[in-house]
Every structure is written in structure tokens, then in C-alpha cells.
Amino acid sequence: MQMSTLLLLGLFLVLLWSLNRWHRSRESLAPAVFAGLVLGAVYAGFLQLARQWAAAPTQEVLAWVDLLGDGYVNLLHLLVMPLVLVSILGAVVRISSTRSLGKISLSVLAVLLGTTAIAALVGVLMAQLFGLTASGLVEGAREVARAEVLDQRLGRVEGLSIPAMLLSFIPKNIFYDLTGARDTSVIAVVVFAILLGLAALAVRRDNPEQGALIEQFVGVAQSWIMKLVRLVMAFTPYGVMALVAGLVARSSWADILNLFSFVLASFVAIALMFVVHGLLLMANGVSPRRYFAKVWPVLVFAFSSRSSAATIPLNVETQIGGLGNAPAIANFSASFGATIGQNGCAGIYPAMLAVMVAVPMGINVLDPLWLTTLVAVVVISSFGIAGVGGGATFAALVVLPAMGLPVTIAALLISVEPLIDMARTALNVNGAMTAGTLTQRWLGDASAAAPELARP
Asked: What is the Cα gyration radius of the chain?
């Protein structure tokens, strides 16, 4: 190992030590997460400068940085399925009637799908305002390789019907889905947990003593899993620091400048959707300022990890402990939001790509019929979007062919995908938390749930 590599790794360890001192001096996780974000960006700046040194092997350094960042994400993925299973099961076991379960599900889905439709319209508007078009985009070796991968993925989703998509939500082998092997595994586990919970309710009606034992067992399992969640959450600042360092260090500023209009339009669209979420909360008596003060550590992690699924544990923890949402609502919104109705990946992104391809083909993208069709296709296609990095590409591969448009453009934007995907993922997760909070206001005891969130 070269001396320059040792120096850079030594600097990383020093920053980790400083972050640890900061973290230990504060009870709240939020300041440490923000500090990790800043330190990760600072360290990435040093790595960018190190690229100018002929003898500085930054890739070797990043391999060690990724060990921490990717290891933390792996631990979060480890938590997702057990947490979803026991949390949904516990929520169903404790409900008073199946009618409440149906109301929660419908409310959460209504917010997720409704905001995705709005996100699609925002994406179309931004693509028009910024004059985005697929014409003139450069196709290099990296883009050609990406196009080959997209062709392979297109074969998986081409011709996928709505019944086939809905069928994928029904688990065929729960042990297979518990591994997260399918794009819709999270929803499949939710379905299994609901069925298992309904069976527990039936047992409770027939034999109250056995029902009480089942509820006690599920409560113990929930407490056990939540202790594990909090154990892993303690490493969040260090994971965020490593993830941000790796992502920023690998960013190509030349590519970002070449596609600056697309990057800027994407971030403006994402920012507008955050405003939409805030307005929806305000209209329902929730202070956006207090809401975002509670959830921004979750958004920071989603931004750095690029994974809605990996953010589920922190999402649920924050909804229950910070926003005061009922456990059933928090778990349903976090689980559904990881694979259905993602505002950034399934709403804004495919809509923008559709406009960029349609304009050079002479299609009037403001035609009411075409626009309505696009929004409907986007909303329907938002079911089953993978809650990990790359979900936006999956959404584009479904939407573009359905609109009769080529998918090549998705490969031409690969150089700026990671940067935009960070913000898109944060928007996806905020959409899930917004759905949970609105559902709590509509169905729960809004005054008692989180009085500190109420607008003064």
C-alpha cells in the first residue's frame, strides 16, 4: 500500500474519530447525521484533489470507504424484511377490526398514487420550461454499455400487464421473498404479514387465550427487532459519511456540466414536489417547518444511500417516535412507499424522459389526451418499483415503451444518474412519510398523535 493511500485512509479515520466525539456528546442522532454528511463531502473533496496526484490510487481508498458505507447499507437491508414482517403482523394483531386495516391501506395508497400523478405533471412542466430534448445527447462507450444492460432489463418488463404486476404482489414462496429476491418482495411480505395477522384475529375470536398468547409472542418479537433496529441506527452518522464520500468522489463534474440543464430541471422538479408535500401537510393542520425538522435525518440518509428500502427502518422509527404516527400507519406507509408510488423515481423521472423523447418525434406533449395517457401510465407503472438504486430506470423501461417511445435515452443520462438519484430517493421517502402523516390526521386521533406538529 502506497504512502499516499495510507495518508488518505488516515485522514478518513481522523474524520471518523471526530464524528464519533461529536456523536457521543449529543443525545440526538440528527446533528451527528448532518455532521457525517458534511464530513463525507469534505473528504470527497480531498479525494477529488488526490486524483491530480499521479501516485494517489483513489480507487483503493474508496474500496475501504465503501467497506463502511456499503456494509452499513447491507445491515439496513438485513433489517427490512424482519421489521416489515413483525411490524405489519403486530399492527394487524392489535387492530380492533379489519375495516381499520382497509382504511389505512386505501388512505396511504391514495396519497402515494395521487402525489405521483402530480409529480408526473411537474416533470412534464420542468422538461418543457427547460427545453429538454434527447437530441444532441452524446453516446460514448459507457453509454453503449449501459444501453446493452437496459436491453436485457427491458426483456424482463416488456409486455408486463397490470394483472401480471398485481400477481407479483402475491407471495408464492415467503422464504424466497424474505430474501428480497424480487422487485416486489417487500409488498409480498406485507401481504403475507396481513394474512398471518388476519389468521391470528380469527384464532383470537375462537380462542381468546390462544389469541392472547399470539399477541404476546408478536409483541416480544417486535421489541426484539426494534432493539436490533436501534443498534444498527447508532451507526447511521458513520454510514452516511462513507456513502456521501464515495458518491461525491466518483462524480464527474465535466459530465454534470454537459447535462447541466437536465440536472437543474430535475432538482427544481424535486424541490417543487417537496413544496407540494408541505402544502398538503399544511392543509391538514401540520406545520411543514416542524415536520421537516423531525424527518430531515431520514431524508439525509435516503439521499446518501439511494435506497428507499434500506431507509424503511429509520422511516418507521421516525414516524412513530418523531411524528407520532400509529405503528400500523407508519409501517404500512413506509413499506408501501418503498415500492409503490415513488414520486421521484416513478413520477418525475419517467415523465421527463418521455417529454425529452417525444418532442424530437414531433409529438405535442401538451395535448390533453397524450398528457392524460402519460400520467395514467406513470401512476399504474409506479406499482412494484424497486426500492433500491436503479428503480427509476425500471420505471422508465415500463413507461416509455407503453407510450410508444424508445428507451435509449435512459442510457445517455448514466453519468449524472447517481447525483439525481440521491435527491429522487429522498423525495420518495418523504412521500411515504407524508402519506403516513396525512393518514394519521385523517384516521387517527390527530390532536393526540403529535401535537407538536400542529400549526400554531
From this structure: 22
d(CA 360, CA 355): 9
Q: Which three cell numbers stand for residue 202?
A: 380469527
pLDDT band at residue 446 using 50, 70 and 90 as cut-offs? very low
In whole angstroms, give the CA distance from residue 291 to residue 294: 5
CA angle 117, 119, 122 (to 5 degrees): 115
Give the model confidence (pLDDT) of 341-382 as tens digits. 889 888 998 899 999 889 888 899 889 999 999 999 888 878
Q: How far is CA 332 from CA 68, 318, 329, 377, in A?
A: 30, 14, 5, 24
CA distance linking residue 296 with residue 301, whole number of Å: 9
Q: Are 447 and 352 in contact (CB under 8 A)?
A: no
Beta-bridge mates of residue 286: 454
Could you give the angle at the alpha carbon of 181 between the alpha carbons of 86 and 156, nearest 5°? 135
Q: Is the Cβ–Cβ distance between 88 and 104 less than 8 Å?
A: no
> Burial letters for 185-218: b for 16+ Cβ neighbours within 10 Å, e otherwise?
bbbbbbbbbbebbeebbebbeeeeeebeebbeeb
For residue 454, count CB atoms less than 10 angstroms from its CB and return exposed for 0-12, middle for 13-18, buried for 19 or more: middle
What secondary structure does DSSP assign to 180-248, as a single string?
T-STTHHHHHHHHHHHHHHHHHHHHHH-HHHHHHHHHHHHHHHHHHHHHHHHHHTTHHHHHHHHHHHHH
Q: Distance of alpha carbon 12 from its chain centroid, rounded?
A: 27
Q: Supply the mean pLDDT for the chain.
A: 82
